[in-house]
Amino acid sequence: MVYELNRSKCVRSISLINCIRFIKYVEQKFEEEHWSLDACAGKALESVEFTREEIVCTKTL
Fold first, then answer.
1. In which element (H, E) is residue 20 found?
2. Do the Cβ atoms of 39 and 61 come closer than 8 Å?
């Protein structure tokens, strides 16, 4: 029980509210321009349009 309690505190949660703009960006690029998900994340980081906190897949757990 103590292990589970400590474990639940060590993982950073994802706040989807902070990531909504990035998720919409990915949806648009993925569906309309047929980009891969990796390409979406890479371009988002490269363009400096999004912070690492906004890009879901670049967060460390």
1. helix 16-32
2. no
Distances in Å between the alpha carbon of 32 and those of 26, 41, 42, 58?
A: 10, 16, 17, 23
Distance CA 52, CA 8 (A): 22
Q: How far is CA 40 from CA 4, 9, 17, 25, 26, in A?
A: 35, 30, 19, 8, 6
> What is the pTM for the complete model shown?
0.66
In 10 A of CB 22, how many CB atoms? 22
**What's the pLDDT tens digit per position in 48-61?**
888 888 887 654 43
